[in-house]
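Exercise 3.2. Students should predict the tertiary structure of the chain below and write it as structure tokens, then compare their answer with the key that follows.

Predict this chain's 3D structure.
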Amino acid sequence: MKNNLIMQDESIPGIKIFHKSLKNVPILWLLDSVTERQYSEEIENAPRYIKFVSIRLEQWTPKLIKLAHKNGFKTNGWIINTYNDNYNALNTLKLDSVFTNNTKETAHLIDKWK
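Answer key:
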């Protein structure tokens, strides 16, 4: 079980407490801002032990993806519901991971697009 776990939270204080207890568990930070500038500041100032930064799909921009990668984070988009969501997340933005409400469809499209 320890090899198949990712912790997610939107609270940096909560993430910090969790990380102190289980340092080897990858952490995904759920960001929820309004502007690209706010997201940029959060990404720039995020603790480096966080592995993934997650933003709503429609708020990701190429600039934010580049910034996240530059700072050592993997990117995650949520919530992926439709074919277009999958296409935008995986082919246009090329996010590293996604949250989907339709795992079967997303898995099928990933296999199709390999």
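Discussion points: The radius of gyration is 14 Å. The mean pLDDT is 95.
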